[in-house]
From TrEMBL:
Residue spans crossing the bilayer: 343-367
Gene3D superfamilies: Exopolyphosphatase. Domain 2
Name of the protein this chain belongs to: Ectonucleoside triphosphate diphosphohydrolase 3
Keyword Hydrolase: yes
PANTHER family, alphabetized: ADENOSINE/GUANOSINE DIPHOSPHATASE, GUANOSINE-DIPHOSPHATASE
A Pfam family: GDA1_CD39
Family of the protein in this entry: Belongs to the GDA1/CD39 NTPase family.
Length: 371
């Protein structure tokens, strides 16, 4: 009997230790499984960018998966809406037209908001930006009669001083009179228009081996490039979407500038007249910027691809703005675990209780053996 008693204690200790180790192992396994087998579910994030251009405004809606790549959202365009009415350069001139513009803006915002899930309305950021484009270049010896070498032949218009100077893009002269009228007469001269456009830039100041303009260092251009937004619309007007030759672009530009207004309206009837009149100046601006500014030459010009969209997403500053801002917008993450919270808590409680009980039993058995 004496020999059987120690043997019985040894068996009890072995069983208790086995249960203890099993409980600890199960406790660790449950915790590890719940943590490592969990998965993340990212919601779709949204952002609104209001592009307030000088001649037009557009509202863009972008979306991207919450899971980012290199801390940047993979942004795509979901919706865009062109605001009916004037751009910022023509605001604060005519209250009635301003009211129409605000109404058009509200219509676009209503359309954009409807495309966003209701639960995302409060977390969707609104981002806005604006820019100004000096669309005309003029000269005159008569203060009330202005000859514009960048306007087409046959295009004449009477404008008030307020339509020029009552905007964020121009500075008022000292003798400013908002009701003063000017007769703007188009007398096309492509070379003179180009010369006036070039005067906008400073191509002389340079403290480096090569500069673009205004003293900014410009390394030689290499590789492929994409020209979008205003660049694309200018190229489309010249029938040169995609790639082209430098001489081809220059020739088409000159022909466009020398085309009579009546012919131009007929040939380019898909372009609004309010914008069509500015395309000669815009084309010279683009050509000057790319050649004299960025130093594209005959050999590198074909590397420029004039495109509007990539994968159904309009390319412009608003997309780049949204890409940058997506870094700062936190993503909503939903964690999915292999076990529900009640099951996980129940297993943890069970195996924790078994561990505590077996530890207590081990102490009781050891005390009885020792004493």
């Amino acid at each position: 009997m004496a020999s059987k008693q120690p043997m019985g204690y040894k068996c009890r200790i072995a069983v208790v230790l086995l249960v203890l180790l099993a409980s600890i192992a199960a406790l660790v396994a449950v915790a590890v499984i719940q943590d490592t087998w969990s998965s993340k579910e990212y919601s779709i994030e949204y952002g609104i960018v209001i592009d307030s251009g000088s001649s037009r405004s557009t509202v863009f809606l972008y979306e991207w998966p919450g899971e980012k790549q290199n801390e940047t959202g993979v942004v795509t365009e979901k919706e865009n809406c062109r605001v009916a009415g004037n751009g910022i350069s023509e605001m604060n001139v005519d209250p009635e037209k301003d009211a129409q513009s605000w109404k058009g803006f509200q219509t676009c915002m209503d359309k954009i908001i409807k495309a966003i899930p209701a639960e995302k309305h409060k977390t969707t950021p609104y981002l806005s930006g604006s820019y100004c484009w000096d669309e005309t270049a003029t000269e005159s010896s008569n203060p009330a009669y202005i000859v514009n070498p960048c306007y087409p032949e046959g295009y004449n218009t009477t404008i008030k001083a307020s339509s020029i100077y009552d905007s964020e893009c121009t500075e008022k002269p000292k003798d400013y009179n908002p009701d003063k009228e000017f007769l703007m007469v188009g007398e096309p001269d492509s070379e003179k228009c180009r010369s006036i456009v070039k005067s906008i830039f400073d191509f002389k100041t340079c403290n480096s081996t090569q500069c673009s303009f205004d003293g900014v260092e410009q390394p030689p251009v290499t590789g492929d490039f994409m020209a979008y937004a205003g660049f694309f619309f200018i190229a489309r007007a010249l029938n040169l979407v995609g790639t082209s030759q430098m001489d081809q672009f220059n020739t088409s530009l000159t022909e466009f500038c020398n085309t009579n207004w009546t012919v131009l309206r007929k040939e380019k009837n898909w372009i609004s007249e309010r914008y069509l009149r500015t395309y000669c100046h815009g084309a010279h601006y683009v050509f000057t910027l790319l050649t004299d500014g960025y130093k594209f030459e005959k050999e590198t010009w074909p590397n420029i691809n004039f495109e509007k969209q990539v994968r159904n997403t309009s390319i412009g500053w608003s997309l780049g703005y949204m890409l940058t801002m997506s870094n700062m917008i936190p993503s909503e993450v939903k964690y999915t675990y292999p076990m529900t919270n009640p099951v996980f808590a129940g297993l943890i409680f069970l195996f924790s209780a078994l561990t505590i009980i077996t530890v207590v039993l081990v102490f009781i058995i050891l005390i009885r053996i020792c004493y």
